[in-house]
Design goal:
Length: 272
């Protein structure tokens, strides 16, 4: 016959064994990016920037290797976290009445079997069909017809010691420095145009620059027992400028964590 104390010891031992079993089904992997994106508080400039500033440029890549001992009922919780910075500069003048700037940073997660360079398909859930989500994106536009209504902002003929400069195309006005010069030649005749310059003082500029930290959870369903490399890539998207505009972006610091979790019978269902 068991005493009360003996029963309590037996229950405690069972709980410890159960806890150890639950913990043994877990695994964890983490990688860090120690680069630090900084914002110049005087100019808004970001450093170090993602270069070249073009769609698809990879700003940061992190990879976590993780071993899955039993894929039945298991999932990987993948969390890419990163500080991202966006810089957009739009400027209008009597020459450019509208300016647009668009830039963004997205993160994409892929899973590779150990030793393979081909990612698995249909195992990453939480992003689009390519396993991507937008971390940060900004579209900035500025426009005005004000400068065309101000007499001092209307283009005027460029005059040199020999009189007004004549031209056929804009290239004929290129040697004139220090001004925003173009060839006003409505008839398109040879030498019938006049080099004209915009007043460089007629302009309006808007600069926005931000830094912020982002995090997002993906779910990966490993297809079988084995070792996998979980890779997160942060890259530029939406890069586009019109008029007198420029954009830039940066990333860092950041982390990529991968945690193995177990689905129990009384829990919800895994994505498929």
């Amino acid at each position: 016959m068991f005493s009360r104390n003996t029963l309590l010891v037996a229950v405690a031992a069972l709980l410890v064994a159960t806890s150890a079993f639950a913990q043994s089904s877990g695994n964890f992997s983490a990688t860090t990016d120690n680069a630090v994106c900084t914002l110049n508080s005087s100019t808004g400039a970001l450093a170090p920037g993602c270069t070249p500033t073009a769609n698809g440029t990879a700003c940061a890549v992190l990879s976590d290797p993780i071993k899955v001992s039993n894929a039945n009922g298991l999932a990987l919780l993948v969390t890419p976290s990163m500080v991202t910075g966006l810089f957009t500069d739009t400027k209008i003048s009597s020459q450019f009445a509208t300016a647009n700037a668009d830039a963004g940073v997205q993160v994409c997660v892929q899973v590779f079997p150990q030793g393979s360079t081909t990612p698995l398909t249909g195992v990453v859930f939480g992003g689009d069909s390519n396993g991507c989500v937008v971390y940060d994106q900004r579209f900035q536009q500025i426009s005005s017809g004000l400068f065309t209504q101000i007499a001092s902002c209307v283009p005027t003929a460029v005059t040199t010691a020999t009189g007004p400069e004549t031209c056929t195309t804009d290239a004929d006005c290129a040697p004139i420095t220090g001004e925003t010069v173009f060839c006003n030649n409505p008839s398109a005749g040879t030498g019938t145009g006049t080099c004209e310059a915009f007043n460089s003082d007629c302009n309006f500029e808007l600069i926005l620059s931000t830094l912020s930290a982002h995090s997002y959870n993906y779910i990966v369903i490993p297809p079988a027992t084995g070792t996998y490399n979980v890779t997160a890539t942060w890259s530029l998207i939406g890069v586009n400028t019109t008029g007198q505009s420029s954009v830039a972006a940066c990333t860092g610091p950041g982390t990529l964590t991968t945690t193995q979790v177990k689905q129990f019978t009384n829990s919800g269902v895994l994505p498929h």
